[in-house]
């Protein structure tokens, strides 16, 4: 029996999906297949590694190099990335715009990371804003947001929203209307981001960015609710988390976005586990709980993932 025959029997028995069958048959027949995702992952890892290397170099050798050399080098790197993007970028459009070159999005992302390193270095060395240093985060988030929309870059959009989250947390940590709690700040930020994404989509401004806003909003809201169950376990905080997690899972299943199913399952599991640990006593019971519950969560996610694969 040939390998292709085995693969056909496995597909018929639903041991492998149709997509897996097609990929394996292509390998057996030595056909060409796409490595687009793998190349993108390598490029992303490479950009992050370069940025991490820049940060490490600054930390270890800034005293020897001198402030002027460090600032000039970082400014030149940021300017070079911007020049590359502006010289090759397509005109702005409110709809989706394809990257003109394969490395375009990653060059812009690298430039933004270099800018972040430069801002952090300048503030660390000269403390220009003093106690108001968090406005560096706000200004950086505004720049990243503009670049993300100008060049249609989701990497930079995620960087903008995460930087804005940092400013939001620092700025409103002492606000009385948010009670200063991590839960209230995170939930308020998540609602604000989700609302902003919905408004921009309604206005027709980069509507394909809406899902990125939802990813950030869902994580922020679920993180805030989960943090409450960890800090002060009680039935009310757990109930809010379970409801929110269930809603995120339901939306993920309905609109076929498996990432949201994972978000809801993991954050909900954290909250339920925090409540369980507050009730369970004895190492044996705790170990049994985690052994059984973790297997159930993973199995459930695998079932949902396989269902998504079969339907597609």
Furnish the topology, listing elements before pairings.
Layout: H1 3-12, H2 18-28, H3 36-65, H4 67-88, H5 104-126, H6 134-151, H7 154-172, H8 182-202, H9 210-231, H10 235-254, H11 258-279, H12 283-311
Helix pairs in contact: 1-2, 3-4, 3-5, 4-5, 5-6, 5-7, 6-7, 7-8, 8-9, 9-10, 9-11, 10-11, 11-12
How would you describe the oligomerization state of the chains in this entry?
A: single chain
Number of continuous helical runs? 12
> What value does the average pLDDT take?
85
- Sheet-strand content, in percent, reads under 5%
Q: Can you put this structure into words, describing what you see?
A:
- The chain has twelve helices and no strands.
- 79% of the residues lie in helices and 0% in strands.
- The chain has helices spanning 3-12, 18-28, 36-65, 67-88, 104-126, 134-151, 154-172, 182-202, 210-231, 235-254, 258-279, 283-311.
- Helix 5 (104-126) packs parallel to helix 7 and helix 9 runs antiparallel to helix 10 (235-254).
- It folds into two domains: 29-172, no CATH class; 177-312.
- The two termini are 29 Å apart.
- It is mainly alpha-helical.
- The mean pLDDT is 85.
- It is globular.
